[in-house]
Design brief:
There is one protein chain. By secondary structure, the chain is α+β, with helices and mostly antiparallel strands. The chain has three helices and five strands. It has a five-stranded antiparallel beta sheet.
């Protein structure tokens, strides 16, 4: 019997990624507002980067994960020059679906918190399907 690719992942996998906020990361720069603080789209991207990092060392050959759902509360502003860290923890594996709990912190303060759901897919087939012309 062939092992299923999703069996490579077990709840509890974690990863942490950091970002030092620059002008390019602000709400003004990414078009999500008009204030010079870390923009919500960059917070989401950082949280997703942590989920990708959590699965990277166990990713079966030819497979990848793609984002399915993000639920994130962006609770506090972060000014340019400050470093934030996103930590992802794989909470649930349901077949090919991977549910992560994520937190973004600025020192001891929680900047954002939520969940990110990703799906394990065959990378080649996914890209072929996405780039097919009508």
């Amino acid at each position: 019997m062939q092992e299923q690719p999703e069996s490579a992942f077990v709840p509890g996998l974690t990863a942490r990624v950091e970002l030092t906020v620059t002008d390019a990361d602000t709400a003004q720069a990414v078009g999500s507002g008009d204030v010079p603080v870390l923009g919500t789209p960059r917070v989401v991207a950082l949280a997703e980067a942590a989920t990708v990092a959590a699965t990277a060392t166990r990713m079966p050959a030819g497979m990848t994960t793609v984002g399915l759902r993000v639920e994130l509360d962006h609770r506090a502003p972060t000014p340019v020059g400050r470093t934030v860290a996103a930590e992802a923890r794989l909470a649930t594996v349901d077949g090919r679906r991977l549910l992560f709990e994520v937190a973004v912190t600025d020192g001891a303060d929680t900047v954002a918190q939520g969940r990110v759901e990703r799906v394990l897919v065959d990378r080649r087939r996914f890209v072929e399907r996405a780039t097919r012309t009508a």
